[in-house]
Amino acid sequence: xxxxxxxxxxxxxxxxxxxxxxxxxxxxxxxxxxxxxxxxxxxxxxxxxxxxxxxxxxxxxxxxxxxxxxxxxxxxxxxxxxxxxxxxxxxxxxxxxxxxxxxxxxxxxxxxxxxxxxxxxxxxxxxxxxxxxxxxxxxxxxxxxxxxxxxxxxxxxxxxxxxxxxxxxxxxxxxxxxxxxxxxxxxxxxxxxxxxxxxxxxxxxxxxxxxxxxxxxxxxxxxxxxxxxxxxxxxxxxxxxxxxxxxxxxxxxxxxxxxxxxxxxxxxxxxxxxxxxxxxxxxxxxxxxxxxxxxxxxxxxxxxxxxxxxxxxxxxxxxxxxxxxxxxxxxxxxxxxxxxxxxxxxxxxxxxxxxxxxxxxxxxxxxxxxxxxxxxxxxxxxxxxxxxxxxxxxxxxxxxxxxxxxxxxxxxxxxxxxxxxxxxxxxxxxxxxxxxxxxxxxxxxxxxxxxxxxxxxxxxxxxxxxxxxxxxxxxxxxxxxxxxxxxxxxxxxxxxxxxxxxxxxxxxxxxxxxxxxxxxxxxxxxxxxxxxxxxxxxxxxxxxxxxxxxxxxxxxxxxxxxxxxxxxxxxxxxxxxxxxxxxxxxxxxxxxx
Length: 593
Ligand code: PEP
Ligand code: MG
Fold this sequence. Notes:
- An 8-stranded parallel beta sheet has the order 16-15-14-13-12-11-10-17.
- The chain has helices at 47-75, 78-92, 94-107, 111-127, 132-153, 155-161, 176-180, 200-207, 244-265, 292-297, 321-333, 370-376, 378-391, 407-426, 444-448, 450-454, 464-472, 490-505, 523-528, 541-549, 553-564, 569-583, and strands at residues 11-14, 16-19, 22-25, 27-29, 167-171, 187-192, 212-214, 229-232, 237-240, 281-286, 303-307, 340-343, 397-401, 436-441, 459-462, 509-512, 533-537.
- Helix content is 47%, strand content 13%.
- The two termini are 22 Å apart.
- By secondary structure, the chain is of the alpha/beta class.
- The protein has 22 helices and 17 strands.
- Bound molecules: phosphoenolpyruvate (PEP) and magnesium ion.
- Magnesium ion binds next to α17.
């Protein structure tokens, strides 16, 4: 439907719902607004402080560039190294500091405003140079301007943190650190042009209970967009200028969903077992240590996956050993002996440390990610291992390696753990004799050598978000390919079945911590495939536990066999959705009416 002349007419736009739930709120246009540079006068006494702020922003920018440079050297990306080098030389030039000092002291305006004006002047000077080589080099320096300005303005976190409460945030794209920086209840919903269902930005939004619609053509929004706007994350529908009856209907459904969730949450004490007494260990995926209380409130059994990279995604630089040690100990102090699986930094793909943000790989998900990154950056890996091993003396920690694709990688990583352990002991630290070590199964090659990996580690954890993308050759964050991203593809199910069988045969535990574990339509299938451990965001524990409790192991095995006999992902999904609709018609989150 066209949005032209739609001033008071109800308009429905369709995207892809990637985090379920309903939100009604005022629209807020986020990332496709250029950052506004504030301009304000600064008194004589405040000018030194402005200069200090500028110098601090330059220092942060330099620190990021130096780390980026080291990263690029490790990659051998010469062109990119040259660009970073040019930026470093540019900020080392004392002229900038001299010009800024003069500007701030004489003009009496804030650092951002002076810097913006100064940069305009530099730009004009560069562009007046006849040689096109020099003009083109200027484009490389623009990134430096944005970097320093970002630090002066306080980064993207500050931008999202200042979004009005319950707003519907429209953005071209969101990064995992954008969504991670948001307090759950502060934002109504996200609507973006780009973004896949298992992109990390989406995973975090779901963990925080924020409805999210991606793949929506933002050019169709009217210029004078105003509220209220309805977002239905179940169906992917965004409604502008809703009629009073539509508003009423959605308000009622939203209340109904909230009541149903509250009802499930009250059952936190219930055991996580099928109605014929088969125990399923249900633990929590965690990105944010401050969300631990939700885990306990919902009756989760420990932490099945701590995505440790969120300790640094929204800041510059990797955390020190002491910072990490403190974070892991804080987590343990809330766990009362329950198991905590810390996954080593899964950096790369769509999760970049600040210093990597301008580093481009042609296929980042197939590039220097996770264990590959850690093995190439032993000082970062060793620092994390030191913190984990030290913390392991204070609780029930296991260590998980992300994106293992060969036995060689597992052995190398374990070898480094041993070296770090010996070093710590020689320094006088008390380290437990054994640390349980597991391998993520996210790459088809790892799934197919699950028997080999199982002989050299203590547990396996199937990461279906990646297993699906690598098995089906579909980038998990590419909205244009989302139709091909099919977790119920028979190829994926067969890989999962094989992994579970191999783990069982070798007597080690296997869990599933991908988003499939949080989809109630798939719970019976997973149990039927032989899984007895699932890890989901704390928010999803009540619903998944409820589904487990109404499933029988015999029926689940039968259902899994029926699903495995189907030839196509779509057939499997509609079979399982129909079964779920039949057994749980009251769940309007998954069975929208
Ligand atoms: C997965 O790939 O399923 C997983 C749990 O890891 P992440 O989503 O962090 O890549
Ligand atoms: Mg993964």
